[in-house]
Specification:
- This protein has 217 residues and is of the alpha+beta class.
- It has one domain: Roll (3-methyladenine DNA Glycosylase, Chain A).
- Helices cover 14% and strands 27% of the residues.
- It is built from 5 helices and 10 strands, in the order ααββαβββααβββββ.
- Strands 1, 2, 3, 4, 5, 6, 7, 8, 9 and 10 form a 10-stranded antiparallel beta sheet that branches.
- It starts with 19 loop residues before the first helix and ends with a strand.
- The chain binds a DNA duplex (13 and 13 nucleotides) through strand 3, strand 4 and helix 5.
Length: 217
Amino acid sequence: MTRGAAPPARRARQRAPFPRSFYDRETELVARELLGAVLECHASDGVVSGRIVETEAYIGAHDPACHAAAGLTARTAPLYGPPGLAYVYLIYGMHWCFNAVTREEGHGSAVLVRALEPLEGIDVMWRRRARARRLQDLTNGPAKLCAALGITGAQNLCRLDRPPLIIRPGAEVPDANVAITPRIGITRAADWPLRWIVTDSDFTSRTPPHFFRRPLA
DNA sequence: ATCCGGATCGCCT
DNA sequence: GGCGATCCGGATG
């Protein structure tokens, strides 16, 4: 072995994780401001991270598409808990989805992270997402990004400011590069404009052609 | 005790 | 564009 492994990958200086107060605000605002932020997951095989390019707001018990509409149960307890924690749930018996809980305890709201642009640990992502053909397919859906980052129910209720899960500020995304659409894949409140996307990113999931798309600027 | 539908994905036509 | 996979939470009886 030669002395010294490959130099560490150059990366932008990391900013401090968002504090709890970032999440203790209107869910729509948090969904908007999470665009451009970096979500990272730490595991034994390394750190994997991506830049958030698509989010959805689930705004509480009065939102029929939000799990909190079922009331306070064992499953929805994380939603009703303090802001700044992870709510990770299983969908269709096989896929995990990741949310950041917002607003004060008892509100039942969260932001679903729906797509990332891969940053660190891309080799690990390819291993975890063996069927993906293109780079975009690693993380352009809520369950895909959980698989790529290694997020499972084991991270449910984890804080988002320390390992294994951290969300940090990234380069801000200007309003000119943001659009709002209805949420994907739901049947109730299907027309509520609560999905935020980075319009010039190649890493968002598909927007159905008939969806309206409101530019932010 | 049983039934139903779901914040998805990938493979099929 | 359609559909099956595969399991759980919540509703109903």
